[in-house]
Specification:
Length: 170
Amino acid sequence: MTAAPDLAAPRPATDDLFRSVFRRHAAGVAVITARDGSGRPAGFTATSLASVSAEPPMLSFGIATTSSTWPAVAAAGHVGVHVLAEHQRDLAATFARSGADRFGPPTAWREGPEGVPLLDGVLAWLVCRVVGRVPAGDHRIVLAEVLAGDPGEGGGPLLYHAGRYHGLRE
Ligand SMILES: Cc1cc2nc3c(=O)[nH]c(=O)nc-3n(C[C@H](O)[C@H](O)[C@H](O)COP(=O)(O)O)c2cc1C
């Protein structure tokens, strides 16, 4: 029997604790896209993408209600979900930068199923039907059912950890 490791006294739930713990959480990087009410493409970088259900296939992502993309996601019937490749750090940064022209050059995209904006050159993508928007503090958890997509041919994913983008290292 080995002794239990010493655990530091727990810290109270502050913003700093929350941020510090999630800085240690490595996550894959996705871009979520949709059309806004005027048909313009909108989208944002997200690490909150999660698989939810196998039957039917459903996923979720979190979006801040202060996000410039929220009005589009709040109204859209469908969204595009893109898993970014290791070489797409600039694309991830563009879709996270306030005020950036996210769909202007050099972003390459096309219209996909259900009119959803689809980004070129990603590792994998899905087009989904939005089935729920669950209030969660200052965010909404969007639930979406998978309609179509392409798993791609493999390659290294883009990861985010400790405030930086990374590739996988064996
Ligand atoms: C790596 C990374 C992951 C992010 N994940 C999310 C997320 O899951 N949900 C979200 O609402 N915003 C997320 N953001 C923030 C948005 O991408 C975006 O930066 C923010 O909405 C500010 O853009 P805006 O001013 O156009 O709203 C993330 C940003 C980065 C850099």
